[in-house]
Amino acid sequence: MKTGSGANPIVVINGGQAFVRRPTMARAHRDAKRIARLVPRDRAVYILGYEPSPPPGYSIAGIVEDISRILRDEIGPATVMGISFGGFVAARLAAEHPETVKTLILLVSAHRFSPEGRRRIDRQIEYAWQGDFERFLNEFGLVFRRPWLNWLLRLRFRKERHRLHETMNDPATIIRGLNAVAGENFGSDPSWLARILAPTLIVGGTRDPFFDIDAMQETARAIPSAQLKLFENETHMLPVERSGSVARTIRSFLDARSPELNGGLPQAAAPP
């Protein structure tokens, strides 16, 4: 999906929940509106999701190759923003295909999960195997900073519990998607992050259960040209609860790099 217009496009790679629910136009438009609040309005924004029916063997490597092909053939080099699980894909894209990524933004993401985040994803995979969508969704409980939003989220899940099999993707699709973006242990060897040439912004909250401070700091240290912006006491829903502040952080980062964006891709240093 594309929104806005202008030079220096932004490609947004959505979070893993894009393959949890059955795709609908209404949901796609809601996602587009939410993302539009985070990025400059004078830029064309392309929102990319995932394969709606992932085949066996679906992997992050395959997702990265598909997106690199779209960038080369249809969009051109761009600012790439990965949200949550989408950050895994965005970071791998910047490392494997640096010619396609001018600047990189990892929003509520890192190169690996926190220990708690890993446990939650493993439980989600287990519940998806069982077809227990109510417990699957409960793993997203208490993701907001504000208690009343957590209450509303749980109320919504409770109201939907009798029709979850109508709105959720089939278990095989969910499991293949989760395994694609979360099946690898990226934290075991983060040396690949050093291949990211693009100036990088990492934005997260200090109370994010999926990507903790340690994970985000490790990512920032390993990428040669990265800066980290942490919002105190914010959670994984930082882009929703503090959309204005996040948008200003992203705008400031991109404005500071306007000459680089207009002049082309970052270049590797010449050997001595």
TrEMBL record:
Q: Which GO terms describe its biological process?
A: acylglycerol catabolic process
Q: Which SUPFAM superfamilies match?
A: alpha/beta-Hydrolases
A matching Pfam family: Abhydrolase_1
Cellular component GO terms, alphabetical: membrane
Query: What GO molecular function annotations does the UniProt record carry, in alphabetical order?
Result: monoacylglycerol lipase activity
The AB hydrolase-1 domain extends over: 52-241
PANTHER family on file: MONOACYLGLYCEROL LIPASE, MONOACYLGLYCEROL LIPASE ABHD6
**Listed name of the protein:** Pimeloyl-ACP methyl ester carboxylesterase
